[in-house]
Design goal:
single chain, alpha+beta, six-stranded mixed sheet, 11 helices, 69% helix, rod-shaped
Length: 389
């Protein structure tokens, strides 16, 4: 088994998120535990062996500092089996060691002859137990690993004392520990449910985005040729004119119509006609790429194509002529001669040019190319159209 492999199972993703949340909160809660340790040191300074107290405080400080540094490392662990195993092992070990050190403190500093001292122990150790409930319950086993060794030694010390009061205190503390374990597990269940819902929502959102992309592609793409359709052309025209109205650039429109396409369909059949339209779209895309045209071809009618581009009229006419030649060479020598006619026009939106005028001018140039014998490019020069080929 590849332990470094990325995981995609929901349970593993949820566990990774739980462990990461736990690691992210340790730098917040561990300094608070050091503050509690300082209170223990202050409260028992004159009542216990001071060197032992200092060693205990130093050990707790080193352990807490190490866990904080380790948490920053664990937050960046990858979502794979090895990363999850590493996070789980280190977080459990850190919780167990911290709980054990605090539990040792409960044994070292318990003194039945000092009621204020053991009351302070109960308050501090019980407070730490309750405080860990929120931070360590992201993953219940870490809370268990901390809570049991942290609180159980003090319970044991109370149980060893004689007297009804100690028996009651022992039972109450044991119940307190069990209740915290119970609510920690409930807390973990709430967290895992929330994480699963988040993942489910993310998955639904991604499915929705995917469906929207498919819908957009269906709505704005010609299903036969794979290039934009008339709806995409209208959208591009509107956006391009808006942009160039600000920038002052000229906009050119090339309209192309396949010559005698109905006759070709009648002679060779519609499947052959569809293949011709696909090949013409491919030729237009190829020319646009080679000429580095700032525009994209569209199929806006049955056998009618368009290309909207920024630039001067001379460049647009050259692109149209290149396309005309490439289309003429598509089936040369195969008995299926294909040609196309082109109309080219230009407008400047900043000078008052409009979409309607641009399309009308290009359409007029295309009409003149068709009536003048087809298989040629006609450029609309603003008043009369000029035959360019």
């Amino acid at each position: 088994m590849d332990t470094d492999a990325d995981v995609s199972g929901l349970d593993e993703r949820v566990l990774h998120r739980q462990l990461r949340l736990l690691a992210e909160h340790l730098p917040v809660v561990l300094p608070a535990s050091l503050l509690a340790a300082g209170l223990v040191g202050w409260g028992f300074w004159d009542h216990v062996d001071q060197p032992i107290l200092i060693y205990w405080l130093c050990g707790l400080f080193v352990l807490s500092a190490g866990r904080v540094l380790l948490s920053w490392y664990l937050v960046d662990q990858p979502l794979n089996r090895k990363g999850i195993r590493r996070m789980k092992g280190m977080l459990l070990s850190g919780a167990l060691l911290s709980g054990a050190v605090w539990g040792i403190g409960g044994i070292l500093f318990f003194d039945p002859g000092n009621p204020y001292g053991f009351a302070l122990l109960v308050i501090i150790l019980g407070g730490l137990l309750s405080g860990a409930l929120g931070s360590h319950s992201y993953y219940f086993p870490t809370f268990f690993a901390f809570a049991v060794p942290e609180f159980l030694p003090l319970i044991w010390e109370f149980s060893r004392e004689e007297g009804e009061m100690y028996e009651i205190i022992t039972l109450v503390m044991l119940l307190f520990l069990l209740l915290n374990l119970y609510y920690s597990k409930k807390h973990e269940n709430v967290i895992t449910t929330a994480i699963r819902l988040q993942f489910a929502n993310d998955s639904l959102l991604e499915e929705l985005r995917s469906a929207n992309r498919e819908l957009h592609q269906y709505s704005y793409t010609d299903p036969l040729t794979g290039i934009g359709n008339r709806r995409q052309f209208d959208l591009d025209m509107e956006q391009t004119l808006q942009v160039t109205k600000t920038t002052g650039e000229a906009v050119c429109l090339i309209l192309m119509d396949v010559d005698y396409f109905k006759a070709y369909n009648d002679r060779f059949g519609h499947p052959k006609g569809d293949a011709v339209l696909k090949d013409i779209a491919r030729v237009m895309l190829k020319v646009c790429q080679e000429q580095q045209v700032r525009g994209r071809p569209m199929r806006i009618g049955g056998e009618e194509f368009s290309l909207l581009l920024k630039g001067d009229l001379k460049t647009a006419a050259h692109v149209a002529e290149t396309m005309r030649q490439e289309v003429s060479r598509l089936y040369s020598g195969k008995g299926q001669q294909i040609s196309a006619s082109f109309g080219v026009a230009m407008t400047n939106p900043q000078a008052g040019g409009t979409r309607k005028k641009l399309f009308k001018s290009a359409d007029q140039a295309l009409y003149e190319a068709k009536t003048a014998g087809r298989n040629q490019v006609v450029v609309f020069d603003g008043q009369d159209s000029a035959n360019q080929s």
